[in-house]
Amino acid sequence: MDSFHREAADPFRVIYDVGAHNGNDIPYYLKKAHRVVAIEANPDLCRQMQARFAAEVGEGRLIIEHCALTADSTDTVVPFYVHIHNDVKSRFPRPRADALRHYREISVPARSILSMIQEHGDPYYVKFDIEGHDVAVLRQLFAAGIKPPFISAESHSIEVLSVMIASGGYDAFKVVVGSSVGRQFRNHSISTLAGCDTHSFPPHSAGPFGDDLPGEWMPGDLFFQQLAITGLGWKDVHATSAFEPNRHARLTIWPHVTRRLARRCGLHRITNRLPAFISRACTFFTPR
Fold first, then answer.
1. Is 5 exposed, middle or buried (0-12, 13-18, 19+ CB in 10 A)?
2. pTM of the predicted model as reported, rounded to 2 decimal places
3. Are both 61 and 113 inside the same structural domain?
4. Phi and psi (nearest 5°) for 186?
5. Which of 2, 54, 78, 95 has its CA 20 to 30 A from that of 104?
């Protein structure tokens, strides 16, 4: 049996929050799993999480790992670049030369995602948010034959989706728009270890995953077309092997077209109302 698809035989769930930042996703993950492993390279944010979740750390339900994940298992210490003004932009890959003045370089411990999993257990879900280094770690994960039932990563590059599809483990996808998480998922219905619940996701959090996500799971070819329409950027691609995709799912086109036109023309307040206006107009002029 594939050790990463033994959920029915071994219900113990481990979630890996890779790029945990300030821990805003952790309260949700603690509802979903028996153990949460939060991985963060910024030492100040690790200290904040240790204080914020002292009880959960003491119970062993939360493990906070201060390190940067690298694809080179021989690394023990690596440079990490902390953004001076916005810690969300802190990163392991070296920033561009023209942006380097906005960062301060520190040295942090280095580990691989494989050693993490070996130590803490098979993943039920892995969230990647490591600012430009997601693809390298995804490749390392899949090359080792590790394909969690649920996985997500930021889609600043189409490579994220390409690597997920090429792994052969996923053909069901959804997307979460980062800028809308706080609005879209307020008092959102979720499933937990204890049953059903609601959860309000704060702004700048990753949002829900798995069966807590609304909408249909799309096959890879349709999802690729959807991303071509909506664009990349601050969006998380979610993939699963636990659900079959709806191969007759429809692409969402109109809202994204109107928003792009609105931004170009400065008419966002008007175009937000266009779909409803057109719908009413069509109803009015339909012959009776």
1. middle
2. 0.84
3. yes
4. -90, 130
5. 54
